Amino acid sequence: MKIYLDGALVDSADAKISVFDHGLLYGDGVFEGIRLYGGNVFRLEEHLERLEYSAKAILLTLPWTRKQLSDAVCDTCRANGLTDAYIRLVVTRGVGDLGLSPWLCKVPSIFIIADKIALYPAKYYVEGLEIATVATRRMNPSALSPAIKSLNYLNNILAKIEARQAGVLEAIMLNDQGFVAECTGDNIFIVHKGRIYTPAAQQGALKGITRDAVFDIARELAVPMEEHDLTRYDVWNADEVFLSGTGAEVIPVVKVDGRVIGTGQPGPVFARVLESFRRRVLTEGTRI
Ligand code: PMP
């Protein structure tokens, strides 16, 4: 497997970063998870824009143009002969002496991995997932904005551990006011009386690229959709619940905190969203 590392495609065995890299030492860096579908990098421009926003938010100047980043992603896919893959693009603060200051690091590092990923077993796309609310709250935006896709994922990892301990595959994370924020690696949506609702970014949701696609799909399907504060009560009493994320795509949820959602089967609105999503992933984006 070829890995893109600081301007060159190298064998995975040679793709190494320094123990003095601040991405490793302090989680000082940003990343994107991107998908390649049938030779099409889904919404690559939008992912690169979010990467630029994340970098700007942590005062990390990217020394690459949008075009250079886009070419690097496509080159990595081509070099590995891939037409379908999960792509992980990581930018770290770079190598520097010990100490938190980012000014210790002169040049950021970049690496791109293009590989396979299967987040949830296939049967859950048909049968639906069971999820549960966990105690770990989503980070308060005044401490660290959840909109920044940074290398600090411990908040989500702790929630993921709790989900696993509760015997489910994904967790609902609330914000510090008790409103639903999102899941550990996915955005959440409810369908109620024919309308789709999802928490706003201000409530602790990442502005998911797949979430944006769901907004476009809702428009296409003429299903009203809006950002709305959601409580656990709203989720329990929804007609349908589903999640979205680059890894998860769109996946139905049929049980939350022991409450059966709707009929206990993936619902009709979800089915239409899924159908449109599967069509869009092949065309919306950048051909490699
Ligand atoms: N929330 C979190 C915390 C995430 O890490 C992700 C990405 N895996 C998402 C939501 C979904 O975002 P996207 O659709 O851009 O993958």
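^ 4'-deoxy-4'-aminopyridoxal-5'-phosphate complex. The first helix runs from residue 22 to 26. The CA atoms of residues 10 and 264 lie 48 Å apart.
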